[in-house]
Amino acid sequence: MIEFKDVSFTYESGETENNLSHINLTIQDGETILFCGESGCGKTTLTRLINGLIPHYYGGKLTGQVLLDGKELKDYPLYQIGQRVGSVFQNPGTQFYNVDTTSEIVFGCENMALPVPEMRKRLEETVHSLKLEKLLNRSLFALSGGEKQKIACASVSALRPQVMVLDEPTSNLDLQTIEELKQTLLTWKAEGKTIVIAEHRLSWLKEICDRVICMKDGEVDFDIPMTEFERYSAEQLHKMGLRSLDDNAVPQICSEMIGGETLELRNFCFSYDGVPALHIPQLTLPVGGIIAVVGNNGAGKSTFSRCLCGLEKKFKGEVRINGQVWKKRQLLKNCYMVMQDVISLPQTQYAGKQEEITAVFDGRTSVAVLEGGGVIVTAPSLLKAYDRLEVAEYSARAILESSQLGNIVEITEKQVDEIRVQCHLN
């Protein structure tokens, strides 16, 4: 059982959103709970209190009591909380510690020092339960967003915690993959696990959740059974800042393309290691239009966007604006892309830098070497290097894109290892 007794929390960063004020809640064993509410209402903060990230990772002022099975969570060592509470984050990539799927699934079991036969047993049972046979022994970097989410679920499921916490798990998933995630949660529910979900998308949870707890400005606005919540109309939910429970309630808004300036794509193609990922013989778009690029996970939406912005050097085809061909350098100079995973670049450290940046990638490690000698790396295995180098936790590719400087060099794993040595990263 999870209990919140007059819990208040304020982040030490001083942010005014996501704080909590006098929360009193009880979550019974085996319940499936939905935390909903507008962005900044405190949903994620509640989940961080349950999985121990507050106060063990996120600092701030915490008053009141958060109890797990009658004992205050702050008195548990974090590793013991991890054995009792499993967490699946919004971006599953942030919780991976390996480069292949099988190793990732058993990673937590290895940390618990379980005997090898027990780890193999848990691996087999988890893979069978979640139907992941086709994802074994795969590179994590080659998976779609939905497949990564499945591996994240499997990695915590293998630990067999009694409580599962998910923070906006469907934010990057298409409808088919959401349905597959739903089946995973129903499997956990049938096993009697307590499930806590902080989510904006609501329709897929109607058959899963027992209770709905709506947050507003850091306080509980209402706490009602899902059967009662389902009676709310789309208009009522909209007034509360919530999404509809009906997937078909989205208004259909279409506008015909009118005359004027045009952006034309011709023979727009791109391949990953020889595998075709994009093929658009011809497409005409209105300049100044608002255009939605939609499709399932892995359909090529991000690849299309990157090529259109000139970020993929090896893409083939032409981009014409009013009949004039734009070269890749022009696309880079005139296009801007907001990434799916938003990370703030420290402006004080990089503002105004006009150094040449060389970025190297092998699909596992990203290293950007600045002309002035600075080094930027991203890879779980290199996090330890942050203590002895001026290293920013920011994608080298994103640095390259935002600066519009430097060049991308595709290199071998051996060459990356040599760069590690040169940068004293081993």
Protein described:
- It is built from 15 helices and 18 strands.
- By secondary structure, it is an alpha/beta fold.
- A hairpin with a 4-residue loop joins strand 15 (357-361) and strand 16 (366-370).
- Helix 7 packs parallel to helix 8 (175-190).
- It is globular and about 70 Å long.
- The model is unreliable at 342-365 and 369-411 (pLDDT under 50).
Q: What separation lies between the terminal Cα atoms?
A: 45 Å
Can you give the mean pLDDT? Answer: 79
Shape: globular
Number of strand segments: 18
Biggest beta sheet attributes: 6 strands, mixed
Quote the beta fraction: 25-35%
Descriptors for this entry?
alpha/beta, 4-stranded antiparallel β-sheet, 426 residues, 6-stranded mixed β-sheet, globular, 18 strands
